[in-house]
């Protein structure tokens, strides 16, 4: 997670005019990333690199979506679903770490931490409630 200092980065470089929007956005993005990365600690940089390298195998996502939707899916759709899944897993892990710290436990995450994190996310986000039954 980024430190609190990374939230205070100035947005002076951003040019919002419509004529130079494409050229300015391609030039600003790397400079903003380097400013943010400069504020990271070594541990945060390792975590960020691990997050960037991680992902779900495209063939497994394709099989899952084809089976669920019962039709062939566009490759761009598969990439989008893979990204959404990656973000969802990141939220689950972040919440599970919060559960672990609430319980004053250390070490690797346990299944009970992940289950509690999922339960909390389901209670917090009304769109996640698929069924009205208790899962665990």
Automatic annotation (TrEMBL):
One of its GO terms (biological process) is RNA polymerase II preinitiation complex assembly. The keyword Protein biosynthesis applies. Transmembrane segments: none annotated. Residues 36-120 form the TAFII28-like protein domain. Residues 1-27 are annotated as: Disordered. Keywords: Initiation factor, Nucleus, Protein biosynthesis, Transcription, Transcription regulation. It is found in: Nucleus. One of its GO terms (molecular function) is protein heterodimerization activity. This is Subunit 11 of transcription initiation factor IID. The keyword Protein biosynthesis applies. Belongs to the TAF11 family. Pfam families: TAFII28 (PF04719). Its main location: nucleus. InterPro entries: Histone-fold (IPR009072), TAF11-like (IPR045127), TAFII28_dom (IPR006809). One of its GO terms (cellular component) is transcription factor TFIID complex. PANTHER family: TRANSCRIPTION INITIATION FACTOR TFIID SUBUNIT 11, TRANSCRIPTION INITIATION FACTOR TFIID SUBUNIT 11-RELATED.
